[in-house]
């Protein structure tokens, strides 16, 4: 996985509360970093999440997360969270995540969301307008958030 595989990244600084006494980031915080990256990806794509209506009338629910740790991050470092949609199915999408410190890949990840009815949480098709936004965004020049 290379940084150049991604069209979008978002930078963040590791906060003191995210690290242990040795200054190493607790492993659970990387999922929060991935979530921040995905939120910023939606925003950059013009599909920002609204708590009442979901993503422009749609609602996505996380159903699977997977992180693989390669090297630790430390307090006060700047991390770049790279995000892309690797697969867009009928009612689900798979995000691929790469968390880097400069050129060093620290964590790889995968987050799968299902598009579903807000009440029943039953899968529904991903809207065509969202698919079009993804296609346009993923083929545009790289962006940093």
UniProtKB/TrEMBL annotation:
Molecular function terms, GO-annotated: fatty acyl-CoA hydrolase activity
Keyword Transcription regulation assigned: no
Coiled-coil region: none
Protein name in the entry: Acyl-CoA thioester hydrolase
Keywords: Hydrolase
Family as reported in the entry's similarity comment: Belongs to the 4-hydroxybenzoyl-CoA thioesterase family.
InterPro entries associated with the record: 4-hydroxybenzoyl-CoA_TE, HotDog_dom_sf, Thioestr_dom, YbgC/YbaW
Residue span, Thioesterase domain: 22-107
Hydrolase listed as a keyword: yes
Originating species: Halopseudomonas yangmingensis
């Amino acid at each position: 996985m290379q940084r150049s595989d991604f069209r979008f990244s978002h930078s963040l600084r590791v906060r003191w509360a995210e690290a242990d006494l040795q200054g190493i980031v607790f492993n659970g915080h990387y999922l929060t970093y991935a979530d921040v990256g995905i939120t910023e990806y939606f925003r950059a794509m013009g599909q920002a999440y609204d708590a009442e209506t979901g993503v422009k009338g749609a609602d996505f629910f996380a159903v699977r997360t997977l992180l693989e740790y390669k090297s630790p991050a430390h307090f006060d470092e700047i991390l770049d969270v790279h995000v892309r949609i690797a697969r867009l199915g009928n009612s689900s999408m798979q995000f691929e995540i790469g968390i880097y410190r400069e050129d060093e890949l620290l964590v790889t990840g995968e987050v799968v969301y299902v598009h579903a009815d807000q009440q029943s949480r039953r899968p529904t098709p991903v809207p065509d307008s969202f698919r079009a936004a993804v296609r346009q965004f993923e083929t545009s020049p790289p962006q940093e958030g």
